[in-house]
């Protein structure tokens, strides 16, 4: 009796599966034919009607897969639908370009357009950074003990208030024969990346923490400037910083501006709904931050190698000035084709 009941249940399930397939198989086959042509790059062989129907066919097959899972249809049908839906997803919603094509679009105008899109935030971040340098300088000039509030004694080394001109000069020159430069560059990259990521990540709090972080980090630079100025080495210190600083500080400024851009979108969404304004600002800021990573890698290489190998102030200014001119030209003078490709179904 049990065997008879089991056989009847199997027959009913098979009949239900066959009926399910017959009612929907035409859409499945049509979608599969379109997907196969697109996977083989035969776009010319696809009619306009098929392209227009592609998103709807995908949703129909995805719905069929959902029903098949809920009703426990046969494994063959379920496996076929899962594979078809996965392939169709990449065709309809997947990336429409290769990594090389994306990189070419990114460097060919996408990154610079995103930076120009946060121009107001960059101006605010730059102003805050200049103010941070001034704050650090004024604090330590009023009370040198502020120097150690901004920089730890271990990190300061010989760079402390009261150090002689010879000691301070030794921190700027005569390092071209030291080993381990690549390790130093890697450590610097890690530190700078942490500062930049924090400046960006804290932007959700209306951008205020991002600006405070910029002030804190640039106050240290102002304090060091005061220290070297006291021994008549401010120009040499500026050259020492300039080699990598025009890239590193530019990157930190962009990261702070990106965080502020998101914060402004949250506080002042304008005519757009809050979520839409925040999402738009987030995509633009993320594009900027992708480029910031590249800049930090370049800055680490410049500090780990170029600054050590070029042991005179004019050469250091030349390197730093060239990098600043190159970044400004790329971001604000270069205009490329940054238009994204549209995906099927959009």
Looking at this protein, list some descriptive labels.
about 350 residues, mainly alpha, 13 helices, about 80% helix, about 0% strand, disordered C terminus
Helix fraction bin: over 70%
Largest sheet: none
Return the average pLDDT rounded to an integer: 82
What is the string of helix and strand elements? Answer: HHHHHHHHHHHHH
| Rg over CA atoms | 30 Å
Beta-strand share of residues: under 5%
Structural class: mainly alpha
C-alpha geometry = elongated
Number of folding domains? 2
The number of helices is: 13
Total strand count, please? 0
For the terminal residues, how far apart are their CA atoms? 57 Å
Low-confidence stretches: 338-346
Report what the structure shows.
The chain has 2 domains: about 1-90, no CATH class; about 100-335, no CATH class. α4 packs across α12 (about 275-310) and α9 (about 180-200) crosses α10. The model is unreliable at about 340-345 (pLDDT under 50). It is built from 13 helices and no strands. The protein starts with a helix and ends in a 13-residue tail after the last helix. The chain has about 350 residues and is mainly α.
């Amino acid at each position: 009796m049990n065997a008879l009941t089991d056989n009847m249940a199997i027959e009913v399930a098979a009949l239900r599966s066959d009926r399910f397939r017959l009612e929907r198989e035409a859409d499945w086959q049509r979608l599969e034919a379109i997907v196969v042509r697109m996977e083989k790059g035969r776009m010319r062989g696809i009619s306009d009607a098929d392209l227009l129907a592609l998103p709807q066919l995908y949703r129909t097959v995805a719905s069929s897969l959902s029903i098949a899972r809920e009703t426990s249809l046969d494994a063959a049908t379920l496996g076929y639908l899962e594979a078809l839906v996965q392939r169709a997803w990449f065709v309809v919603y997947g990336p429409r370009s290769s990594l090389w094509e994306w990189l070419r679009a990114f460097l060919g105008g996408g990154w610079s357009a995103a930076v120009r899109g946060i121009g107001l935030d960059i101006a605010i971040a730059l102003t805050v950074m200049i103010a941070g340098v001034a704050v650090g300088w004024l604090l330590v000039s009023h009370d040198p003990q502020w120097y150690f509030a901004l920089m730890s004694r271990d990190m300061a080394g010989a760079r402390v208030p009261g150090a002689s001109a010879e000691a301070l000069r030794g921190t700027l020159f005569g390092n071209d024969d030291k080993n381990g430069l690549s390790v130093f560059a890697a450590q610097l990259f890690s530190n700078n990346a942490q500062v930049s990521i924090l400046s960006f990540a804290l932007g959700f709090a209306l951008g205020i923490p991002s600006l405070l972080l910029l002030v804190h980090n640039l106050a240290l630079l102002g304090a060091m400037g005061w220290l070297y100025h006291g021994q008549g080495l401010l120009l040499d210190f500026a050259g020492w910083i300039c080699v990598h600083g025009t890239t590193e500080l530019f990157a930190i400024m962009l990261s702070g501006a990106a965080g502020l851009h998101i914060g402004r979108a949250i506080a002042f969404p304008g005519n757009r709904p809050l979520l839409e304004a925040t999402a738009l600002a987030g995509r633009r800021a993320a594009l900027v931050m992708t480029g910031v990573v590249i800049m930090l890698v370049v800055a680490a290489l410049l500090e780990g190698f170029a600054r050590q190998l070029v042991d005179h102030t004019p050469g250091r200014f030349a390197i730093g000035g060239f990098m600043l001119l190159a970044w400004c030209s790329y971001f604000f003078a270069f205009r490329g084709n940054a238009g994204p490709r549209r995906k099927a179904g959009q």
